[in-house]
Specification:
alpha/beta; eight-stranded mixed beta sheet; 12 helices; 8 strands; 43% helix; globular; disordered N terminus
Length: 348
């Protein structure tokens, strides 16, 4: 008969096996993360110096062996966005690569060490910046200058048509684009209050506060005047942000959209958009572009403003885990395939 294992040795053996199991699981999960976050494209950092602009960006290219590719140029929405949008663009870039397209994006000024300050820009400044990036790309031997198009989300709705008015583009992908700054702001306020289940008194108070802010903007009030009007409480507003809003609050893309007539446009709209009134956006796009080119409208009922699945976006934990273990599954079903099909359309 074998002698029994002493209790302390048994505990040691259990502890060792537990450690081995944890390490194996950790290594396995780490491998899954690396695999899921590896994309079928080549990626390189680039510095764009063109027309007085210096932009720090990322250029991705397909691994299809071709010497030249079409290009999708990315125009960010609001906020301090880096070139990859914290890697959120990469599943889209991979979809572009599978369609035979390179992708170009850059840090907003002042973000990730890039020179400048994005809060000092107007929408026209952002369009100038994009036009300079396109001129730089057209001079590259690996880019087919006849097949350069734009991709833009949210605030980019005011930038995309301005870019098209400055330089030829062969297509536009507009994702949840805004049309009118003030209408969009009011829609967002009311939609968020509804989502919060706000009381009637809170709604009335916040609308009154929003109206007061609009009056200050119309009379070109300084930041100091804004703070005084709020009783000394800036409410999270900064001088730089107030300056940005003051420069841009009159933005309206309606007339600028005429520059997209005759250009294939893919308008992508989310079913649960709290930021942009998608019905208003679709109405304006159809009114301006219908009969003047190729407007394609795609609706994703299960998507939030970012085109991430609403069920994923509503949970910070689920968003993080999905981004780690299945980043392509962040987006609404069919979204990535829809953009790939659009790019593969004959003539593009």
């Amino acid at each position: 008969m074998r002698p029994s294992i002493k209790p302390h040795r048994r505990r040691l053996r259990i502890a060792l096996w537990s450690l081995v199991t944890v390490l194996a699981l950790t290594a396995g999960l780490g491998g899954v993360v690396v695999w899921q976050n590896s994309y079928a494209m080549d990626e390189r950092r680039v510095t764009i110096r063109q027309g007085g602009h210096t932009l720090h960006g990322v250029l991705t290219t397909p691994r299809d062996g071709r010497a030249r590719h079409g290009l999708v140029v990315y125009i960010h929405g609001d906020g301090p966005v880096d070139a990859t949008h914290e890697d959120g663009y990469k599943p889209m870039w991979e979809a572009n690569a599978r369609a035979g397209y390179a992708s170009l994006s850059w840090h907003k000024p002042g973000v990730a060490g890039a020179p400048g300050d994005w809060l000092g820009q107007s929408m026209a400044d952002r369009a100038d910046e994009a036009a300079a990036a396109i001129a730089w790309a057209r001079a590259r031997p690996d880019i087919d200058g006849r097949r350069i198009g734009l991709w833009g989300a949210s605030q980019a709705g005011w930038v995309l048509p301005k870019v098209a008015a400055k330089t030829p583009v062969s297509f536009v992908v507009a994702v949840s684009p805004a049309v009118n700054w003030l209408r969009q702001g009011r829609y967002h306020l009311l939609a968020q209050l509804r989502a919060d289940g706000a009381s009637r008194s809170r709604v009335d108070a916040e609308v009154a506060e929003s109206d007061a802010t609009r009056r200050l903007l119309r009379r070109r009030a300084t930041f100091q005047e804004y703070v005084r009007a709020r009783g000394g409480d800036a409410g999270g507003m900064t001088a730089a942000r107030w300056g940005f809003i003051s420069r841009n609050y009159r933005a309206d893309a309606t007339e600028d959209l005429r520059a997209l007539r005759g250009i294939p446009v893919l308008l992508v709209l989310a079913g649960h958009d709290l930021n942009v009134d998608t019905a208003d956006t679709e109405r304006v796009y159809r009114k301006v572009l219908a009969g003047h080119g190729s407007l394609t409208v795609e609706h994703y009922p299960d998507a939030a403003h970012s085109l991430v699945k609403r069920s994923v976006e509503r949970s910070g934990t689920r968003t993080t885990l999905t981004a780690l273990f299945a980043p392509r599954a962040l987006f609404a079903d069919g979204f990535l395939d829809g953009q790939r099909r659009f790019l593969r359309w004959p003539g593009r």
